[in-house]
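A favour, since you know our C-alpha cells better than I do. Go ahead and set the record down below.
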Amino acid sequence: MAITRRQFIQRTGLAAAGSFLGPSLFRNPWLQQALADTMGDRYFVVLYLDGGNDGLNTITPVDNGTGSLRADYQIARNTGSGGLQLPTSGQGALLVPAKPFKDPATTAQLGFHPGLQGIKNLYEQSKVAVIQGCGYPDYSLSHDDSRHFFQNANPQGNGGFQGGWLGRYLAANYLGSDIPGVNIRDDIAGEFIQFTTSVLAFTRVRNFKFPYDDYDHSDDNAKKAAFLTLCSQATGSAQATLKYVGDTGTATEKSTESYPQLENHYKVDRPSGSSWDAQYTALNTSTAKDLREVAKVIYGVSSGFPLSNPPTARFFEVRNGGYDTHSDQGAGLAGDQHYDLHKEVGDAVELFYNDCVDMGVGNKVVILVWSEFSRRIKQNDNGTDHGSQAPMFVIGGPVIGGAYGNHPNIKSTPSSSSALDGDGNTVYWQGGSNPKNWTRSTDIRDVYGTILNKWLGMANPLTVLPVDVGSANLYWTSPNFTMGFL
C-alpha cells in the first residue's frame, strides 16, 4: 500500500527542515566548500547490526599466538549449559579460513563465528576486510548515545559537524534536486542525515508511491499538480530552507513515479532476475529481502533503465535487529540466537554480493557492516552485557581482504594485571606507554575516512570528520585514512 501523507513528509525530511536548519548551518565549512568530484560509477552500502553485536564471539581467537588471547577468551566465556564459548574443533566450531587470518598484534589465529559461513566464503575470495578493535574515546554503554556517535562520527560534539558522517559527504557533493541515497527502512538512518539533498526511505520499491487516496483516484492529477506547484514556488525562494524543501520535494515526488517500476525491471526484464529473486525468497529473512531491494535499485541504475526520471541512488542503508543479547545468546549451534543472527547476515550478504557480480557491478560495490558497540568480555549467566570496541567488516570487489587493526587485550585476571576497565570492557587507546598492555584501538573515523578518501574520492575527509581535542594517547588526534583495506 502507498505511504501516508505524514510518512511522505517525514521520509523526505521536510518536517524536520524548519526545526533543524538555521543560519549557522549554512556557514559550516563542509557546506561552503566547492562541490568535489562525486564517487563515479560506484555503490556504497551500509549494513547496521542493531543492538550491539558481540564482537568477541564474531571474530574469535583460535590460539594464543605470541600472547594469551585464546586462554583469556576461555576464562571469559563458559562452556556447558548457558556457556557461550566457541570451540576450536567439533560441533559448533569456529570457521578458520585457508586464507591467512591472524591478529596483527599477537599473530593469534582468528576464526569466524560458525554462523558466518557466507562472510567466511567471501573472505576466502579476498573480498572481506575484518577491522578489529573499532571504537571511539570515552565510549558510552547507551544504545542511543553510542549509535549516535557511530552515525555522527563526532563523539566530542565539535561545532560545525551536524547530521551524519555520510550525510555531510552527500551535502558536499550533491544538490537538492539529486537523490543519491536510499534507506530500506521507515525513516532516514542517522549517518545519512543532512539537509541539502534528498534521501529516500522505503521498505519495498513497489510500494513507494505518492500518498494519493487509495479508494478514489479522481483527483490524483490535481493533488500532484498542487504539490509540485508548491514545491516550485519554494524552489524559487531566496530563503535556503524553502529552497531545500522545494528541491527535495520535487525530486522525491518524481522518484515515486520511477522507483516502483524497478520491481519488474529487476525480476522480468533482467534475464536472470527471476532466479536471483527466488534465491532471496528462499532465504526468507528480513536482511535478504532488504538487500534485494538495494539490488533492484542498483540494477536500475547500472542498466540505464530508460525512465523519464531514472534512479540515481548509489548510497544505501539496511539494518538487522536483535543483537541486544543479554540472555539466551547461545554459542555456535543452529538455533542459538547469535548463530541465527549471524547466519541471516552472512547468507544474505554473500547472496547480495554474488547478485552484484552477476549484474557486472561486483567490483563497484563496497559494504560496511557495523554495530553500535560490542558486548562485555566476561559473559553473564547465559548472555552478554553492553561492551565497548568491536570489529567492523568492509566487503566488496575492490576490498583488499585480510585482518586489520589489533584485537583488544581481553585479559581479566588477575585483577592487578587486568587490561579491562571498571565495567569489564576493553579500553580505547591510541598509543604511548601504558601499564596494562592495552593494544592500539582503531578509531571509527579512520575507517570512515579511508572509505571517504579511497572509495568515495574525497580528497580531505577532515572536512566532514572532526579531530578530537585532548591527549594523543586517549583521543583521536592523528587521523589515518590509508588503512590499506581499499
User: Anything to note?
Assistant: DSSP finds 14 helices and eleven strands in the chain. The first strand starts at residue 43 and ends at 50.
